From TrEMBL:
Record-given protein name: pectinesterase
Domain Pectinesterase catalytic: 174-443
Organism in which the protein naturally occurs: Rhizodiscina lignyota
This protein's UniProt keywords: Aspartyl esterase, Hydrolase, Lyase, Signal
Family membership: Belongs to the pectinesterase family.
Amino acid sequence: MKSLAILSILLSTARGVSLSTRGEDIQLFPADGAKNVNPDTQLKITFPSPPTIGSSGLIRVYDEADNKLIDTLNMSIPTSPSPFGNGSTKANYSDTTTYQTNIIGGLDFYFYPIIVRNNTATIYLHNNQLDYGRTYGVTIEPGVLKQGGFNGFTSNSSWTFSTKPHGPKAGTTDVVVAADGSADFSTVQGAIDWAPLNPTKRITIWIKDGNYEELVYWQYKTNLTIRGQSRNGTIVGYPNNSAFNPPNRQGPSRRPAFQMNGVTDVQLSSFTINNYYKGQAESLLVNGLRVVLDHMTLNGSGDGFTTYGTIYITDSKLTGDGDSVLGYGSVFWLRSEIDSHSAVTWTRTVQAQRHGNVFVNCTIIGLDGNDTFARLPDNTGGVMPNWPYAEVVLINTKTAGIAPVGWGPVAGPPFDTSHLHLWEYNTMDLDGQPVDVSQRLNVSRQLSLPKDAKILAEYTDPTYVLDGWTPVVL
Ligand SMILES: *[C@@H]1O[C@H](CO)[C@@H](O)[C@H](O)[C@H]1NC(C)=O
Ligand SMILES: *[C@@H]1O[C@H](CO)[C@@H](O)[C@H](O)[C@H]1NC(C)=O
Ligand SMILES: *[C@@H]1O[C@H](CO)[C@@H](O)[C@H](O)[C@H]1NC(C)=O
Ligand SMILES: *[C@@H]1O[C@H](CO)[C@@H](O)[C@H](O)[C@H]1NC(C)=O
Ligand SMILES: *[C@@H]1O[C@H](CO)[C@@H](O)[C@H](O)[C@H]1NC(C)=O
Ligand SMILES: *[C@@H]1O[C@H](CO)[C@@H](O)[C@H](O)[C@H]1NC(C)=O
Ligand SMILES: *[C@@H]1O[C@H](CO)[C@@H](O)[C@H](O)[C@H]1NC(C)=O
Ligand SMILES: *[C@@H]1O[C@H](CO)[C@@H](O)[C@H](O)[C@H]1NC(C)=O
Ligand SMILES: *[C@@H]1O[C@H](CO)[C@@H](O)[C@H](O)[C@H]1NC(C)=O
Ligand SMILES: *[C@@H]1O[C@H](CO)[C@@H](O)[C@H](O)[C@H]1NC(C)=O
Ligand SMILES: *[C@@H]1O[C@H](CO)[C@@H](O)[C@H](O)[C@H]1NC(C)=O
Ligand SMILES: CC(=O)N[C@H]1CO[C@H](CO)[C@@H](O)[C@@H]1O
């Protein structure tokens, strides 16, 4: 039996190890001595009451075979220029401070080395440091976590575990993620990192119900489906926003909880993505071609969902705090709901792209009672032209909480509004009764039959909206 500095009794249980310290228990995950652990595991310590996170001390992971230091988390390093996500949202390029940094899917992000939820401290090692077929020992210096008599693990043999001998076999197309470590991967990112770039057979990542608090990012992968066990039960999320992860000098946005960049032929189905921060904080950012979202729940704040490329969304729900769809993409929405404060979308269609956000048989709820479908504000103090080709088309939309003006503000330096497509056909209240559109913004337009039959036929066809792609929901 291994010795634990702080412990008088060691009790093994099936799922963890109960460690009695001054009459209090802590539980370790993976359990001390656990075998067949996934290398993407998080480390969890559950206390009798919530621990506090210290501002100094090291967490270190050693390879037991050769005592090689594999990973270090240094709690003296500040998390981010805005560790609570409430500071400046602008990049400060003269700031040379080192912050807690993790490379996720090839991009650097600021991250929390420890997150406490309820009584559990989850320790996030740097991604992709652990390997298959190894035994690791974890040390935690006093002061890293404070609760009761907990004094860390100063011996590198106090908390050890062994990883699986190997990962999924070559040629595997379906893998399962389970937060409790019982499947192929323990994190969504771990499974995505494993997925090959250009598989000739579609890869499906199945996520078992559970709470996956992790920042997810990947780029350039194709032919990939990510499917939750159940839409409400499979929850992936992270507290992140443009203050916590301000823009980098170059490269993609870093503020979403879940982001895919430069992907093709990807489908997300039946799970929930949350961003737990307010501000400019996407739940999801999609930059991709032929991306399907099906039975998804997205919960973000400002710019709650940002789009680039071609996206087909069906039977899904987005909740956001304003500009809830930041829309650069061509997106066909079917039977989906958006609940939003302020403007539901800021759509930035450019002329060459032809199509923006087209909603068919959707529901749009303004959460303040006076919100608008879309706005085109002056974002640059008159420096930049507005988005004169912005397209937002609502066909058979049920609404509540939308101001009588419906659209706007459309602002900025005067521009030719004749190319705007702020169009509605048959907008209804939640009971299906027509709404009064007499006070709509003058640059918006009501479509009607028979005059607009051709437009309506075109805009109810996803292939027309999505640049010739006919989406198939797998
Ligand atoms: C780990 O502990 C063993 C036994 O106390 C010791 O021999 C070894 O040097 C330690 N390794 C490290 C890296 O601290
Ligand atoms: C931990 O970070 C602090 C602050 O940056 C630094 O002074 C210290 O040297 C670091 N410790 C180790 C072991 O790297
Ligand atoms: C951000 O939140 C922290 C913790 O609540 C608080 O101490 C700090 O004053 C806040 N900063 C700003 C700029 O509001
Ligand atoms: C940017 O960072 C530098 C160095 O930390 C600091 O002196 C300066 O006040 C920061 N500027 C802003 C606008 O926060
Ligand atoms: C924290 O505890 C509450 C109340 O028991 C529970 O509803 C919630 O799911 C827990 N949160 C996490 C992240 O486990
Ligand atoms: C993607 O997977 C499907 C089905 O497994 C396969 O038919 C198709 O050829 C693959 N696509 C590419 C581009 O390899
Ligand atoms: C999922 O959660 C939503 C919102 O909390 C609720 O309205 C819905 O009934 C739930 N669905 C299921 C199948 O539990
Ligand atoms: C979305 O997330 C916020 C912040 O965590 C939370 O307050 C809100 O209840 C969530 N909304 C939904 C619809 O889940
Ligand atoms: C939208 O709903 C109407 C009425 O239920 C239905 O006839 C139509 O086929 C639906 N449109 C699409 C694209 O599914
Ligand atoms: C819209 O309603 C919100 C909440 O009731 C209120 O704070 C805001 O001033 C209103 N805005 C307008 C333009 O009426
Ligand atoms: C819409 O109304 C505004 C003033 O409310 C006016 O300046 C503008 O010229 C009008 N645009 C069109 C296309 O009628
Ligand atoms: C809004 C929110 O959930 N904020 C949390 C983000 O995560 C940090 C780190 O765990 C918490 O301290 C915040 O409360």
